[in-house]
Each structure stands twice: as C-alpha cells, then as structure tokens.
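ok so heres the complex, two chains, lmk if somethin looks off
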Amino acid sequence: MTLPKSYLEYPKRNNGMDHNLYNYSNLFKRAPVTWPKNKNVALWITVALEYFPLALNHETTVKSPPFKAPGNMVTPYPDYRTYTAREYGNRVGIYRILKIFDKLGIKASFPTNTVLAKRYPFLIREIAQRDHEFIGHGTDMNALHFGGMDEDVERKQIKSSLKGLRIATGQDVSGWLSPARSESENTLSLLTKNYIQYVCDWANDDMPYLIGQADKLIVMPHTMELDDRQLLVNLGQNEKTWQEQILMAFDFLHRESKVCGGRILHLSLTPSVIGQAWRIKTLHDTLEILMQTGWVWNATGGQIATEWKAQQ
Amino acid sequence: MKADPKLYDYWPYLNRPKITWPGGKKLAFWVAPNIEFYELYPPPNPKRTPWPRPLPDIVPYSYRDHGNRVGHWRLMELMDKFAVRGSVSLSTAICQHHPDIIEACNERNWEFFSHGIYNTRYTYGMSRAQEDAMIKDSIKTVKEATGQRVRGYLAPALTHSEHTIELLAENEIWYSCDLFQDDQPQPLLTKKKSKLISMPYSLEVNDHYAFNVYGQSSGQYADLLKRHFDQLLLEGEESGTVMCIPLHAYLIGRAHRIGTFAEVLDHITRHKDEVWVTTAAEIADYYRDNCYDAALHNISDANRLAAKI
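and the predicted structre for the whole thing:
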C-alpha cells in the first residue's frame, strides 16, 4: 500500500494559520483591556436552552446529519428517558438557576433554540423580564450546521431561526452559538449577513478576537473546559471537583489580570445537568464566592464583546 | 415519528400549588429496588442486542444474577434496620424463578410494581396488542403471587413504544416511572380518562448512573444522595417534593458499597418529622385524592397564561 504523492506535499506550510479566517496572535503580546469599575475578571455565564426532539429526523431538520449533538437521544425510538431528562432542565432545573441569579444579582446569556423559545413563551418571558441576554442557538438540537451542508438550507436555517428568536424574545440578538458548536464553511458569513456580532463556537482563546471576512465577527472565549456537561457527565467528575477548578481558574485569571489586563472567566451551564437537585447548591456556592470577591465584573456576552471592541 | 410525545404539559417549577404530604411532611421518600431477571438465552430483538458477546455471555449475566443471590438479602436487611419498605420494580418472572424473594418482600409489606416480565424482553417491535398482553401478564402474575394489584410501571429496560403510556391508563395503572421531567408528580395526558400520573423516579441518582456511568465511588454516591435529599427537603417547604432512590442489588449490595449506603438511610430517616417514608403506590394514592385536581387547574392556568404572551 502506498499513499498518493500529494500526501507528502504541504501547500499551506507557511508562517501563520493554515486558513485565512483569522491571524495568529499571542495573547501575551496584546494591548491590555480594562473592564468597567476597574474590575479584573469579567464573569460571563451562558445557560443553554436546548430542545432535543424525540425523533432524530423530524421534518424541520436536514436529513441524515453526519453526527448527533451531545445530549441527544441514545436508545431506539421513542427514547423517553433522554427526552424527558432534557425536559427536566427546561421545566425544573432552569428555575433553580434563575433563582440563584436573582439572589446574587447575576446577568447571564442564554443560547436558545428557536423551537424552544416558541414552545415555552412563559420561560422566555421570565428570562427577558430579568434583562438577561438571548443568544441565537439555531432551530433545535437536530438542526445542525456542518461542513459540506447545502448552503441554501443553512441560509434558511440561520435566517428563520434568528428571525424567530428575535420575535419571541423582543431582543436584537447579537450573539450566536451553533448547536453542538458546529459550523460549516459558510456559517460565519451567513451570521454576519443576519446581523450577528459575536460567535461562541471557537475554543482557541481566553479573550475575544476577530474572525471572518473583513474581521466583522468577534469570537467570544466560550470555554468547554469548565462546561458542566463535559466535566460532570462526560468525565464523571463530582461537583466539588468542578467547583475547585472554577475557583482555581478564577484565582489564576485574577492574578494574571494584574499584569496583562482584564480577563474573562466563562462558565457554560446546562439546566438538565447543573439544575439537578443535588448539584444546584454547588452552583450557588461557587457563584456566591466569585461575586463576593469584589473583583468580578459580571456581564452578558454582548456587553463584554462591546466593551472589548471599544478598546481595540 | 413524533418530535414531541405530548405525554404531559409544560409546567414551570415556579409558584405551583402547595403539596403537603400526610402528617404535614415536606418530602415523600421512597426506595425502588429493581429486582430483575435477565435471561442467559434471550430471544433476539430487532432493535437491541441483549448482551454484547455471543450467547452465553456469562459475565454480564452473572454480574446481575449476583443481586438475587447475594445483594438483595443484604439490602433488605439494611432497609429493615431503618424501617424503610421497598417499592419493588419487578421483572415479574421473578415470581416464578425466585418465589422466596417475593415472599420475603411481601412479608415486609413491600410494594411490587411492574418492570415487565424479563429485563431482556424489550418493548421495541411489539405490536400494541403484544405490549398490552405483556403488561396484563405482569399484573396477573403479581396478583397471583402476592395478592397485590400492581399500580405502577417502569418499562422493561426502559424500552418504550408510542403506546406505552396509553396502555398504562387502560390497565388502571396509577403511576408511571418512565418519565424523568420533574421532581414532583404530574398528571399525564391520555386518551382514556384516568388519573395516571408520572412518579418522580430520580433516574439520575440511580446506582447504575452513579457507579457505571459517572464512575463514582460508594462514598461519593452516598454524599450525592444526601445532598439530593437536603435540596429536595428544602424545596419541599414551598411545595412537597418526591425523592426516590432507584437501586439494583447487584450494584448497591456489593460488600464495598452496602456499608456506605447505610449512612444515606440513616441521614434520611433522622429527618422523619419532615419526611414521609413510604411507597410509590401510597404517594400516588394520596396524590390522586388530594393534589391531582389542583395540579390540573394550575397547569391549565399556566397554559392559558402562556397562550396570551
């Protein structure tokens, strides 16, 4: 067996990236930013409002997407177990989380499937009334964006999901998180055309940076590394370990910020995970510790992106 | 195939009608030992292969059989010590295979609910009539073996069809443990008029999840259960909650785990003035008589409100 000659040819082997979406940039050579009220660390919390349809291939989705979003159905149809366990998050867990945000005065960003926004107007109103931010999160968790997908299908998917979310929430919606954080080669330009200002899919920085044609979009540092589903479910860590790592991250970022300028601590939460009864107190205690330090600027993704951009 | 099975309405966990359990208790606590029989030579199913290796796949088979030979007896003794009765999620073929287990549970006034016939006979591929026959068989089997009328259901191996919930209503089942959308019971939507409810079964605090999915140690599991209890008790002040500990004797009844589990029952039963230690059928019975109508009204108000937004 032998591979074609081209396998040992490296046409993009040049200084910088192997694509032209963004330029390489060393975090420690960038001009420092300062956050409002001279706070060191911006605390950005996202809470995903996801709708996983019971049927994997129902009529609103692309036929045969190449993979399933994490959290999707597991067993043969009808997987009541997984469907109802996700619904627990949207009925029970989310209200536990909102109660904690109320108590601690926290504002968060809510990546929201448009199907969910239409299904649960009560929940949307509860969140909107508290001045939290909604972020575009596609149609539902089956409506994936992926390399090679039909551009027209994706154009319609993005346009209709954002239009629907803007109507359902009454907000402008300037941020976007793709379902399963998956993009096609066209996603960024389609988002720009639909008035999106920042995206949360890329996982390569601790601070915002610019991406896409004419650097129109801001990438916000939406980390997977402290994500509740990743740590507590996929890796099976317990809640105390999760909390320790969040506090260690904060401690380090706080110290780094004194030398390098404002930093961002991002936490992504899943109502069906952290909203479980036995986990919710850990969330409360962790956020309480962070807020009581006095070194935190809690803000939505849109506020942080705007503040950062104003200083570039 | 449906995007939404429409088995229940959306019901925000906010400003719900207050549930007060008998005796003014805030939390209804029940334990669900799954007493299961897995076949060494199960028939093939079109959607699910029972065992990973060619039959006989002796290790996973005997791993589960350990529960009926060893674990169950340890668990039952421990529950006796704390005066906690079980609500048994029963592979009803146990009535034929291991009548001594049934007899011991029945003597203690434990409840039996249906978990199908065998945990290796899946609902996938059954016709509506076949699934109905399986449910009826399980009800009849338990009646004959124990004198008890089955009032609850958890589908074998959690395998369902689009008919499952409707069939429960038709078979005068009071509660389903098949749905995991809440920490309080909720009326289910069925064509046949019935007072079928979903019973919180707390799937994610199941010993299987803790040990074999999340990889927790017995100490971590005990800590998790205590925290789960503490939170639900706290919330039960506003409106009564339900906590279930779903167990498998082949997991919790192991020598390195059962001792730690005693701490959990100790912690919970120390709060007896605030906790109703009971069975699922007793919770369902009370709920149907005292909470069901208020829940329906509240849900329909919530729906009306949502429609105006």
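quick notes: The longest helix of chain A spans residues 80-104. thats all i got rn
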